[in-house]
Task: inverse folding
């Protein structure tokens, strides 16, 4: 072996040794450990334990979780009783301080509801005709006037309808490259989503004249809309329902939806009913009753029997239940589906 080769081997050995030393020096000295494998339910205590990997003393740990922030001395565990906390996927952030240095960590946790949803049935009060050419994406009353958003490319529309006859009173057709989704009405304005175009439109309720548009921020797509006195709620097909500013329509946060067993997704048409979010689940013949404060599904309305009333194929995705409209003045609830020939007034029963 010549001197040059010996020199190359020496340099390679030095490089490997140096890299190994750097990796060892940069290796985490601490870790976080969640009890119960990281899944908790309301009413339980979320517990995170800091651990040292190299017998290094922990001076203190600063924890952040949802709206809570606390600093604990030494390796004292972080513990918090879960009560009104948001459900879904969350994380505990921790800054571990030791000998003047700081090491940051996160621990993922899942929070579920502690009660199974109540199961409800229904009674049909009235049946009205519905235009079976309309792919219902949004449905809402303003007084006695019924408004609908109909989807599909080249067929998307904003509609005002006569409830009793099902006939269209007024309509506005969207451009062919837009797929209309949910709508909601605030004052004299109608807000309508599009599916994958990352844009929503605002119209004057009297003339259907387009007043402006709004872009989506972090949400994935446009699915359903409803509103309370405080927020507009927007679903996007994921586990999240977004909270939008009612004036600017900017996304200001979200809730994740969960039962006592799992986090749920695919919430389509939304309606605000007596302080709760009623949500169609795409391709499911049911309505989820969601607590907007924490995302808990508190009830499920089983509407499977309605499919027989409209004589559609329950396995065809184009004919699924979708469309909820509530009249708060009279406490009346109406539902329909995509391409259905009927719209139903129903009452909910346990």
Result:
């Amino acid at each position: 072996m010549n001197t040059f080769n010996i020199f190359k081997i020496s340099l390679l050995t030095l490089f490997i040794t140096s890299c190994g030393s750097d990796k060892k020096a940069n290796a985490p000295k601490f870790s976080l450990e969640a009890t119960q494998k990281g899944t908790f339910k309301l009413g339980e205590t979320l517990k995170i334990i800091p651990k040292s990997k190299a017998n290094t003393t922990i001076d203190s740990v600063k924890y952040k979780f949802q709206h809570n922030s606390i600093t604990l001395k030494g390796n004292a565990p972080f513990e918090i009783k879960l009560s009104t906390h948001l459900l879904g996927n969350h994380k505990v952030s921790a800054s571990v301080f030791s000998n003047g240095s700081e090491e940051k960590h996160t621990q993922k946790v899942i929070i579920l509801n502690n009660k199974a949803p109540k199961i409800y049935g229904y009674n049909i009060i009235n049946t009205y005709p519905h235009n079976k050419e309309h792919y219902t994406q949004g449905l809402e009353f303003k007084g006695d006037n019924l408004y609908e958003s109909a989807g599909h490319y080249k067929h998307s529309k904003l509609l005002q309808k006569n409830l009793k006859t099902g006939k269209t009173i007024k309509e506005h057709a969207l451009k062919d490259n837009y797929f209309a989704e949910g709508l909601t009405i605030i004052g004299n304005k109608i807000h309508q989503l599009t599916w994958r175009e990352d844009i929503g439109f605002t119209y004057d309720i009297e003339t259907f004249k387009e007043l402006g548009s709004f872009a989506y921020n972090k949400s994935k797509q446009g699915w359903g809309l409803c509103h309370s006195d405080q927020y507009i709620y927007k679903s996007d097909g994921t586990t999240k329902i977004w909270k939008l500013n009612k004036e600017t329509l900017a996304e200001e946060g979200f809730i994740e939806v969960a039962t006592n067993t799992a986090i749920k997704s695919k919430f389509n048409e939304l309606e605000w009913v007596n302080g709760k979010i009623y949500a169609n689940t795409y391709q499911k013949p049911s309505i989820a009753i969601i607590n907007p404060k924490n995302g808990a599904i508190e009830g499920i309305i089983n509407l499977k029997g309605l499919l027989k009333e409209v004589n559609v194929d329950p396995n065809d995705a184009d004919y699924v239940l979708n469309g909820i409209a509530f009249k708060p003045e009279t406490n009346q609830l109406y539902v329909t589906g995509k391409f259905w020939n009927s719209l139903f007034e129903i009452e909910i029963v346990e």
